Hints:
Blueprint: E1 5-6, H1 8-15, H2 19-27, E2 44-45, H3 47-60, H4 65-73, H5 80-117, H6 125-130
Antiparallel strand pairs: 1-2
Amino acid sequence: MMVTELTIGKLAEAAGVNIETIRYYQRRGLLEEPPKPLGGHRRYASEQVRHVRFIKRAQALGFTLEEVGTLMRLDPNCACAETQELAERKLELIEHKMADLAAIRQALSGLVKQCESGGDGADCPIIDVLTGERCPDE
């Protein structure tokens, strides 16, 4: 199998990201920066495209870059239990965030309804809540 070498621009294009994303991943230690030959350009192995896509997919599932680094260091042949544990923790965090967002949605919805039913000259219920004049559920 022949290994194709890519410039940073071609790597970014093939992975569907921009060049600065590649550089950022390198600074974070998620992607190796190949040596730069004298008077030349760094060349990336085509395998790096898979690494960048892995990082982006993991981020899309809500994993932080630190967690992505952990996932990348695991041996794929025996890492299912560790990966499952990380995913379960991530799922629990997402469920807590969803509950928080549902509470925020309910509070804002109630304030919007109060605004819609409010008469002229009445204080704005949203402003009152934001300034601490009253609680959101009043």
